[in-house]
Amino acid sequence: MSDIKTTAIVLAAGQGKRMQSKVHKQYLMIQDRPVLYYSLKAFEDSIIDDIVLVVGKGEEEFCREEILKKYGFRKVREIVEGGKERYHSVAYGIRAICWSCDYVFIHDGARPLVNDEIITRAYEEVKRSRACIVGMPVKDTIKISDEEGYVADTPIRSKVWQIQTPQAFEKNIITPAYEKLLADEEKLSAEGITVTDDAMVVEYFMKIPVKLVKGSYENIKITTPEDLKTAEILMDR
After folding, report:
1. Which backbone phi and psi does 15 adopt, to 5 degrees?
2. Phi/psi at 135 (nearest 5 deg)?
3. Dihedral of the CA atoms 54, 58, 61, 63 (nearest 10)?
4. What CA–CA distances, in Å, run from 216 to 57, 105, 119, 123, 230?
5. Coarse DSSP helix, strand, coil percentages of the chain, rounded to the nearest 5 percent
6. Which of 28, 108, 147, 232 is the most exposed, fewest CB within 10 Å of its CB?
7. N- to C-terminal Cα separation, the chain
């Protein structure tokens, strides 16, 4: 067995307001199983050693009984309560990982089509580069708008990627990066800086380059009702 220890932080604390549903999107059903099941299953069956599941306030017991026990997940070593923003939830998840962990994978529980190939590619790359994120080159031309809605710039399409998860980092990089973020979050807010992914935290606070790794165009995030239908179709292939 490898001496390298890996932990996946699976984020399931979002409310999914754009889903137009009273049920949070991670608990909506795809083929008779909750969206969250598929992400957990992918990491359960992968090289990842253990999982920290981050859920909404008051949802710990529900997840323990209706997802972990019901479907027999064994790698989830801890369930923690998330925070107000996504980056709070990530930070709380990081604080719960095992001290002996070497690499941390951060994944949105609303991406049910992550698979072993994607996880393995990220694993091999993070060992080489120390920090990597999964994504895919964009297919469409991208425009940057100004404040009035006019085109301000057109980036070179071959250099533009749409970013997905998991995002993988050495624990010794991602841990201090998030502690610095929590310490400086009021300053960032005052400057109008919005944290949108984990790589941004590493780039900003640690000044460490982050490698891009190909994921899959099918590794979509469930955000709207249409995404739920698309995920069902992709799973039927």
Report:
1. -95, -25
2. -175, -175
3. -40
4. 32, 17, 11, 15, 14
5. 40, 25, 35
6. 147
7. 34
Question: Which pLDDT tens digit goes with each residue over 32-80?
Answer: 999 999 999 999 999 999 999 999 999 999 999 999 999 999 999 999 9
> How many angstroms separate the CA atoms of 89 and 60, rounded?
14
Instruction: Round to whole Å and give the CA distance between 210 and 145.
Output: 26
CB neighbour class for 17 (10 Å; exposed up to 12, middle 13-18, buried from 19): exposed
- What CATH number has the domain bearing residue 121? 3.90.550.10
Q: Between the CA of residue 156 and those of 19, 138, 161, what are the distances in Å?
A: 32, 10, 11
The predicted model scores a pTM of 0.94
Residue 76 to residue 41: CA distance in whole angstroms: 11
The three-state DSSP-derived secondary structure of 204-222 is HHHCCCCEEEECCCCCCCC
Tens digits of per-residue pLDDT, 148-185?
999 999 999 999 999 999 999 999 999 999 999 999 99
Q: Is position 135 within any domain?
A: yes
Residue 1 domain-assigned (yes or no): no
Residue 169: give the domain boundaries: 6-235
Tell me the three state secondary structure of residue 109.
coil
Number of domains in the chain: 1
Look at residue 22 and give its three-state secondary structure: coil
Q: Measured at the alpha carbon of residue 112, what is the angle toward residues 8 and 181, in degrees to the nearest 5? A: 45
